[in-house]
## 1
Amino acid sequence: MPVINMPIDDLLALVNRGGDSVVSADNVSAKLHDMGIEVDEITLTTMYKCGVCGKVVERTEAQGAALNCIACGVDFREKKDSASTIGETHVARLDMLAVRPDIFDVGGMARYMRGFVGAQTGLIEYPVDPPTYRLNVDPQLGRDESFRPSIACAVLRGLRLDDHGIKFLMNLQEDLHWALGRDRKLASIGMYDLDKLGGDVFAYRAVAPDGIRFTPLGFSPNDPGSNMTPGEILKNHKTGEKYARLLQGMTAYPLLQDGQGTVLSMPPIINSESTRVTLDTTQCFVDVTGLAQRTVDRALNIIVTSIREVMPQVRIESVKIAGIEGELTTPNLAPGRMALDVAEARDTIGAALSAAGVRELLERMGHGIDTSSDDTTLQVRVPAWRNDIMHPIDLIEDIAVAFGYENLTAELLPTFSVGAPRQVEELSAIARRVFTGLGFHQVMTLTLTSEPAAFEKWRVEPDPATVRIENPISVEQTIARVGLLPGILETMAINRQYDLPQKLFEVGDCCFVDADAETGARERRHCAAAMIGTHIGYADIRAVMDAFAHELGLSVEMRPIEHASYIRGRVAAVFNSGRRIGTMGELHPAVLENYSLKHAVAAMEVELPVA
């Protein structure tokens, strides 16, 4: 979980903006705890301003002085006088969950707190002016060689910025890069001084690595060597080097330009120095680019509404976008709609709540309730900046938070039973001990994956029993895994710079469509192991398989087969009581190449036979 520095004075000023002191410095920690937020400590931080790009870096006494700028990458130790101290502030250091990025900043947190304490309940509506700017998206950005197809934009007018305001904007971007953007991979944000831009039709297009030159953030436009191509930025700029992996394998890179051809940014890597937001900026253009439209839309909604909370004089203006899949206008702050069964909410929480009580609790959490609601079903309007509300159970969780977990009464279950480990768990524990005893390290990889990762990299056809996600939030998580080895090989690829041999294993569930199962799908417990090294071969993994079977008391038979993922003559199917339970062998060089692995890998994967 990330730790967020929440400025206490700013938070209290925004919460008590109406004039009444509903929260004070004495009880703010308790209120945050009641809201489900863990407060690590209240401490004093020092703020350092980068003299190159204007980024404000915040450090606690325990962290020590800032050593470099996280925005432009300049090293404060190498460049003397490149950082200056601009003040100190008391902050609450909060442990935050990534599911609530809308409260990572002081504006979003103040909005949440005002509702929670009852100072401002119900759905807040922010006016959005009609668009005066248009953006055209290059269809090439929807192709594999330059894939970053989604973009959402807005214009903000009436900004009044000081050093604290700049810090707020920068931190808002960086926090969203982590929470929603997966370190810029799924979404990246840019803000630009609108007065430095020209024309009213912008372009989001793909350019060749050497197709254009511009001055990246942190470089002086007066320096002849600062005018760089996208390819040079990835090699010679500190931020470019850090995020070059996001454009790896692409032959064309995303670029954002205004109507006169001025470069705004090279998403998701770096902004242009010429469009940098400064203390003199009064209006700015905001963009969020990424891999999925839902992600970039939610990120933009959080940005513009949080800024409006901190600077209520700001006007939000929409932008018309001619996207790859059609025209859209962003930001779209229209609330989502979801029906909630009052009885289900009451039974799930375990509290005797009336429909009016449920309505009041939802409104304290910032939701709106349609007038068409009745005592059995509430028609809930969900704020457009709430990324975490995807199912009625999420609304029920909000109700429980507002009600207060401390107010729930503990009750014993009316039935009595004696617990015991399931057979599959006992076998899994034995399997883990076996692999550990053989010198393997355990890994735990993600249950959700994608078809390219699960099948294409392994040179096999998709399994017809694969469970597919209907509305995936990411292109990397579209199916439930049907095997453990792809995740193990991904782990090996990440760790290929370390010494060999490496021996990894995983014991975990795989998911398959099953029409006879109550849920339409069934989980099966798999065990997989892989080893990589200079002299690894079939005999090594066969020895592991024999030891594994012996310790679990399994009678197994190896039968030679042909398998596209393995080298011919070095692969076998594993049978138990006449039923095939797995495969083992030496992986095909083409599979290894897909993971950029340079040494031989022997692997096995079996399903635990459970009665």
Note: The CA atoms of residues 516 and 522 lie 9 Å apart.
## 2
Amino acid sequence: MPAPPPSPLPPNRKSLTLLLSSLPFFITFTHIFLSPYTKVEESFTLHAVHDVLAYGFGKDGLKNWDHITFPGAVPRSFLPPILLGLITYPFSALFVALGVIKTKIGVQILIRLILASFFSLSFNHLAASLQIVYGTPSRIWFTLLSLGSFHIPYYAGRTLPNFTALPGVLWSISQVIRSESSHTAKEGQTQLRNAIITLTALATIVRLELALFVLPVALSLVVLQRATIGQVFQWGLIGGFGSLAVTSPIDYTLWLPALSHPDFPFNSPSQLLWPELSSLIYNALEGHSEEWGIMPFHYYFTNSIPKLLVGNSALVGLAGGLWAFARVGGQKLVRQVGCWDQSLAGRDVGRILTVWGLSISSVLVGLSALGHKEWRFILPILPILHIISALSASNLWSLPPPSSYLRPLARLAVLGLLAVNLLATGVMTFLSVNNYPGGDVWQALETAGVAEGEKIWFPSYPLQTGATLFTFTHDHAAGQGLGFWPALPAAEEPRWVYDKSEGVDLSSLQWKDGVDFVVTGDWAGLTEDGWEMVAEVGGLEGVGKAPGQYKVEARWGRKLVILKRY
């Protein structure tokens, strides 16, 4: 018999659901407005979206795309930025026509808001799945502990490949969890199929290290008899080869003009058919990623995870430790200390780890074997760890007998850990918001007296710290790449020429005659060699101990200057 329809929620439950559902949007949007600029790691996707909106896909437009002149470190698939650009276009065109967006900076913010909206929708889907399967307290604590942390909410609207994939990862995790309480076996199989296909497609075209996440969970589903090996194999083939069938022609066509660029890391057209695999071979197998630094094997365990979880580390450690201890013969002691196995949340931790524990281990151990490590590489396991911390907090908040006498202390501890998260988030947000001097250059240039047609050169540092094609507000991009209605506002007057060429020697007569303004963080000696300072951009130098006991202070200083040739 089909399951009965859900009963209407009482008004107080509706209000709670509305509040919890609004929080991801509010918090991620707040981060974007506080910190609207980007770092160089976000530039490929961001600039590709810019080119979709500005030039479109016509033959004459494609030759103007930024990646042909500046291909970046390694190629990535164009499908995510193309989709993001197509979704952005109607909103951008409308807001430009209405005068809501007046500069290209507004379009950059809009792109990030749209990406954050996809994150928020998938986050709410996962939170709702937790509520369905594990109860309302799990949703409350998952929302508070996840959004009270810094990294995911701050980066949710940033166009790093890891975070363009994150909405799909969250939705896939949600599908696997929701399949536990499906009304029919067929519905559960459909949810598992959608999850494996989506994760495999994301691994294939966006971040190949996701294979370390999806393969173990597929194996776990087979071992738990929730799917057959034939099913997961078929789903993987659909996700992998299906996504390649779509992306390979696109990536080959768009990357081929860049193949002759001297800085392009590949030399064979065949490497363009699957950019993610070619980049993995280039970075991991050929060792080029180690040029960006080598970290010890334990880096993720001793640095990244404590930094990412902050107060949640204690909750994850408690839940995971008690569950593991119970599995190796400590059941009696675990029951005496908190009745963990007897509590619903305690059993739920076991259900999560049974499905996802192998994925967590695979990601951590597999990526620890590589020399170069970054916290965002292990991003897929972070939502799982937040789920475990939420179930742990739920258990501590409602300790059952005979440990209920500890409940006030346990609740105080949970609130204290949440407060630690919020404090750390406040500090890291302050430090991060004031760390984009390149993004503020466009405003400083307005006061520098740049005339019509004059050329401004941007070396590496301002481009790494916030200057993007969207901050080039006086350039000539038409913004009508996708239709009659422009997606970008008209360029500011007067029109300027922006130059991102590398290897420029400002001391040479050639460049003295070819460049009128320079934006640089390395101005020593240039003011004595034909250049005068006309504007500057300040920023955060660091945080250190201030005079007096237990006092710290932020140190501010000049980060960039704008020089004019005379």
Note: The longest strand covers residues 531-545.
## 3
Amino acid sequence: MKVLVLSTMVPFVHGGAEELFDHLVLNLRRQGHDAEGMKLPFTWDPAEGLIEEMLIARQIRVTNIDRLIALKFPAYMVPWHDKVLWVLHQYRQAYDLLDAGQSNIPDTPRGREILAAIRAGDAQAFRESRRIHTNAPITSRRLKQYNGFDSSVLRPPLNDPELFTGGEAEGYILATGRVNAGKRQALLVRALRHAPDVRLVVAGPPDTPADEEALRRLAAEEGVEDRVTLDLRFLPRAELARLVNGALAVAYLPYDEDSLGYCTMEAFQAAKPVITVTDSGGVLDIVRDRDNGRIVPPDPQDLAEAMAGLVADPALSRRYGRAGRGAMEDAGLDWPTTIERLVA
């Protein structure tokens, strides 16, 4: 089957969605399909431009393919008669983030027109699709709540699981993934003030220079520069895996995450416990407090206590980590099964 994988991209921003895109194309080929990937440049600011972004997607014409697999707004609006959606997320600022007061769409007559256009465009894309999968139960719940469409959950498998073998902990807490306000690495830096025996490594690419500057400035202001390593760049997979394998625990604190998160999956594959917070969304589908990690309120002091507790008791950390590895095995996620469902 000739398969085109379609998504969006922001230049020089590389996170979990981009990893999924690359490995989806790779694994389609491994399963014997002719697969190509295409990304549409996308910007969400200013909100006025969102209508133009959608119109551009609707005007794109693809040819010489059998199946179109689309992942993100507004790429899933590209028309094709045999289109399957694997929705990583919609434009959340028109949905749950709007309800949470975290939208860039203004509460004005024009803003309401933009909002209506996004929802109408989504509905059209969903109606014309052969099948709708999502990456997590929370994404499916949003689709049902806001758009009235049913979908099936198809969790992304871990990429390169053979790299995350685990190993002797070197005593640090690790925070991986993109660095921005929504991932809340700043909370971990603030927590260090209340946990003098904890060392933190933040390893991942900042979305913008301002994100990097803010985190470095915060470490200086909190007086914890000697206990935090900021390796703010896109790390090759092998290098990332070495950091995960050597960590005592992995901290992942996204706000209302759509999925389990690759950071979570990589940690559990390496038998490392995960520290997260009560409003981290899909991460909570697999992390269990005091079983395979810690779940605490998004507060620096609570995080400090969680981190310090694992640092002080490495045996407990190892026990939580083994339970996390078991949770990954129970999830039964693999690429051949995933590809089979996407091309069915």
Note: The CA atoms of residues 2 and 66 lie 5 Å apart.
